[in-house]
Amino acid sequence: MQYDIVIIGSGPAGYVTAIRAGQLGLKTAIIEKDKIGGMCLNWGCIPSKSIIESAKFFQKIKKDASGFGITGIDTKAIGFDWKQTIKRTDGIVRKLGAGINFLFKKNGVEFISGTAKIISEHSVLVDNRLIETKNIIIASGSRQEKVNNPTLEDITVNIWDLFKDRDLPENIVVFGQNTVAVELAQFFNLIEKKVTLLVPDSKIMPLADTYVSDYMKNLLQKSGIKIIFDVDTDLKQYEYSNGALVSGEIHIPCNLFVNSKMRKGILPESEIALKSENGFLITDEYFTTNFPSIFAIGDVNGKSFYAHIASAQGLNVINHIKGISEIIDIKKFPMNMYTVPEVAQIGLTEAEIKENGTEYKVSEFSLFSNGKAIIEGENLGFVRMLSDKKYGEVLGVQIVAPNATDMIAEAAAFMQVESTIYDVAKTVHAHPTISLKFFCHLFSFFNTNNYYILYR
Fold it and tell me: φ and ψ at 22, to 5 degrees?
């Protein structure tokens, strides 16, 4: 039996691609050596957002209940139950995993459990079963690199082992500079643990605009999170001793060390030479490897570490296989960070615009005076838009707000069609909403009477 497509890995890159291929009538099989949904569903995106939501709810009740007129709550008696949080999270993961499996069956996708080995351009071996196929799509994801410090082995937890029924100690150290590291550091802080964030770089959130990164750094520090920058990637300057990371006169209390280092691609075993660089498979603009019938999508190609971008790459490959070839611009896909408040951005950063030599304008509006945000008790944050001075084209949008990861979708829509600030400003938004203030700052652009803008 020959397949049209065999996909290795069932994360957001793999399962979305498989479902779309099945919808188009392509005979499709997907191979997974662990759990349906991959890293994102089982150990990443979904579990981390679930526990963060629990922490936000905990803080909302503890700090804001009386102010919202809720009585009868003894805030001193309120605690955070990690075991119940994980129980709730596991239920969400099971439900979503069952949904993916249902969609596989509905769209004729064969799910194969096992470890894949690429034998040739058109064949894959899974536990002694040889599978012939016209195309192979590698969607095997990525994994954090290990910390090579033997003194930390007994207290280190990697991301894929974190979401388990365990006792959470008082002093927690999170290591990493990426979004996940920042989210976890803030989560532990929200449930009132003592947190230190060790950053192997000079900034957190390295892909974020520096303005946004600095804002979040200050916010984390004000909340009591200690941040130490420019730490060696293997923490060679630290030794774990008597409940602390020690480096000279520096003593960092630590009972749990959470590793959130940058990730490297999980490359499948292969009898043919797939080209890779720095731990990722090399692909062209259509996500094709050095073999025309083998593609690599999602984390494994190193172009992005976001689930929605991985899915978009997969859909692009299916179109390419069906004869519709299009180059996608990853800069026009949103980058979401589920911090508190949330962070989202799309398009170019200010540094990238300067590097391009483009004359630009920055417009910023704070949520501090937004009616809906004040009503919700969540008016910390801002909306920032970068636009081309000559034509008014929107070049980038950055949002820090409670629902930034939802709000950014509107920016994604108008950036896909290369809208100008004039197009955006004519869009009517309901009042009161946080989205209203998303665009009020645009009025500063208009110095003529050519536009009358209704914004209620």
Answer: -60, -40
Torsion over CA: 105, 107, 108, 110 (sign)? negative
CATH topology of domain 146-261: FAD/NAD(P)-binding domain (3.50.50)
Amino acid type, 185: A
Structural domain boundaries in the chain? 2-143+264-331, 146-261, 341-445
Q: Tokens in use for 448?
A: 């003529």
Inter-residue contact 267 to 308 (CB < 8 Å): no
Q: What is the pTM of this model?
A: 0.92
CATH level 2 (architecture), domain 341-445: 2-Layer Sandwich (3.30)
Distance CA 153, CA 146 (A): 10
Kindly give the residue spans of alpha helices, DSSP state H, lying in 269-321: 307-321
Q: What is the 3-state secondary structure (H, E, C) of 33-80?
A: CCCCCHHHHHHCHHHHHHHHHHHHHHHHHHHHCHHHCCCCCCHHHCCC
Query: Contact 127/269 with Cβ under 8 angstroms?
Result: no
Tens digit of pLDDT for each residue in 312-361? 999 999 999 999 999 999 999 999 999 999 999 999 999 999 999 999 99
How far apart CA 280 and CA 184 sit, in angstroms, is: 25
Between the alpha carbon of residue 93 and those of residues 37, 245, 278, the distances in Å are: 9, 34, 32
Report the distance separating Cα 412 and Cα 15, nearest Å.
23
- Other CB atoms within 10 Å distance of the CB of residue 84: 11
Q: What count of Cα atoms within 13 Å lies in the side-chain half-sphere of residue 141?
A: 25
CATH of the domain spanning 2-143+264-331: 3.50.50.60
If phi over 0 gives left and psi between -120 and 50 gives alpha, with beta otherwise, what is residue 242?
A: left
At 191-242, the pLDDT tens digits run: 999 999 999 989 999 999 999 999 999 999 999 999 999 999 889 899 999 9
